[in-house]
Specification:
Length: about 475
């Protein structure tokens, strides 16, 4: 398979199955985020809710694009870590996969709404940092600018969910004060009795939106994970997008060269001049490579990964340079450069349809299994009172909006943390901070703070162990 020895082919299949396993676990770990409110307000029966949620998770993976997936792939500069030894690549992939799955299962077992996003990103960072300790590491093994961007997204999104839900709850209470609608919205649901039709419709809609956007964001993390596996182990087949039209490349590269020619290198530091020189040299080489190509398949297999490296390094170097004050380019030049670099990256930023299908199936099926533990925590243990219609709808509306916007900008967020913080915000809006259950909040915060350092150490240690054995 893919010109690999039988043993490596078996390990590749195992890694792909493990990536599906991560997304499956992600599904049943995160299902509660979408279905807890409709179950605890008697809007839908539990199994109807999880099947409906699973279906929309499945559809969300296909509709979400690949922005989030590429954010995951680009967090770890695979072109730095991959060498001629396939065993080294498998060591990298196995370390982050096993760590992510183990931590997700552990937190699920204890019913703690832990973030699958934190888990995966921590595992990737752990592998990258461990690689930087090796003697052969000659450049950065973590894309720190992308890590900072993702870190801010993961930090801000739960704070946004918490605060906006409080504002929305106050708005609803003010708008419906002393009305029959207000009395219904802010009362505890009657046992085994569904809410009025209009409330049921709103909660049904918010459940659907959270499920769909969860698929579009969290599903893309699984897609990114599979692409890390494929690019890391069989780069000759997956380093470049075979469907890309190479005739578009020379024009984009020529426009990039034109803009880069306007940069005055005398104002730059030595390190930045080196970056600029590398980018200019690689851009010229890429233009020569693509000038006579009819299709990507014409590039020799042993050269495809090198082409990918050049595209990635040109993009990284130039994007880093235009952020520097010393680089005095007009806003129009910067806009052209960003646009053309994005166009060039279409040859590296992609995912085969079969990968999307495989991940969407894993997430959709996972969503329908094992949901009870986390649902109970979200529905009963965050606040001291039973979830009201207004609380459920407010938390899910904010969660769906936050996740949808994050997917649009290609940023991974934690569905778990956004919705859990929204539920907490709705409880605070009702009766203040005293309405929160301190034990549950403490456990969630503990998991939030522990996840990154624990999985980073675990993944890094496993990577170094596997690599020493390979």
């Amino acid at each position: 398979m893919f010109d690999l020895e039988l043993s490596y082919s078996i390990l590749l299949v195992f890694c792909l199955l493990a990536a599906c396993g991560f997304e499956f676990v992600n599904g049943f770990h995160d299902t509660a985020n979408a279905v807890a409110t409709v179950i605890y307000t008697n809007t839908l029966k539990p199994w109807v809710a999880v099947i409906w949620s699973g279906t929309w998770n499945f559809l969300g993976v296909f509709a979400g694009g690949i922005g989030v997936a590429m954010g995951i792939v680009n967090l770890l500069p695979v072109e730095t870590l991959v060498d001629q030894n396939v065993a080294h690549s498998i060591s990298m992939v196995m370390a982050l996969l096993l760590t992510a799955i183990f931590w997700n299962l552990l937190t699920w077992f204890f019913g703690i709404p832990c973030s699958s996003s934190h888990t995966l990103i921590g595992s990737i960072l752990g592998v990258g940092l461990a690689y930087s300790l090796l003697p052969e590491a000659t450049s950065e093994a973590v894309n720190w600018s992308k890590a900072k961007e993702i870190g801010l997204s993961l930090l801000i999104s739960p704070l946004f969910g918490f605060s906006v839900t409080i504002v929305l709850m106050y708005f609803l209470r003010s708008a419906t004060r002393k009305t029959e609608t207000g009395d219904t919205l802010f009362k505890e649901p009657k046992k085994n009795q569904p809410p009025p039709f209009w409330i049921r419709s709103v909660l049904f809609l918010t459940c659907t939106l959270v499920s769909f956007f969860h698929g579009s964001n969290d599903g893309q993390k699984g897609v990114g994970l599979v692409m890390l596996v494929l690019i890391g182990i069989v780069p000759a087949y997956f380093a470049l997008n075979e469907k890309y039209d190479p005739s578009k490349m020379p024009g984009s590269l020529a426009r990039i060269e034109q803009v880069v020619g306007n940069i005055d290198s005398t104002t730059l530091s030595l390190a930045d001049r080196t970056k600029l020189s590398e980018a200019v040299s690689m851009t010229a080489h890429l233009r020569q490579t693509f000038a006579s190509l009819g299709s990507i398949s014409q590039i020799p297999k042993n050269e495809k990964f090198e082409v990918r490296k050049e595209v990635m390094l040109v993009d990284r170097n130039l994007n880093a340079l235009i952020k520097k004050e010393e680089v005095r380019l007009s806003e129009n030049d910067k806009s052209i450069l960003k646009s053309e670099l994005k166009s060039v990256r279409k040859v590296t930023d992609y995912s085969p349809t079969w990968v999307l299908f495989m991940i969407s199936i894993s997430l959709g099926v996972g969503t329908m299994i094992g949901w009870k533990r986390i649902v109970k925590t979200v529905g009963e243990k965050i606040g001291k009172e039973h979830l009201t219609y207004a609380q459920g709808a407010s938390a899910e509306m904010v969660a769906a909006s936050t996740i949808g916007l994050s997917t649009y900008f290609g940023l991974p967020v934690s569905t778990t943390h956004v919705l859990s913080s929204g539920i907490a915000g709705s409880m605070v809006a009702s009766k203040g901070v005293k309405n929160l259950q301190p034990d549950t909040v403490r456990n969630i915060l503990l998991a939030w703070f522990l996840t990154l350092p624990v999985v980073m150490v675990m993944a890094g240690t496993l990577f170094l162990l596997f690599r020493s054995l390979s």
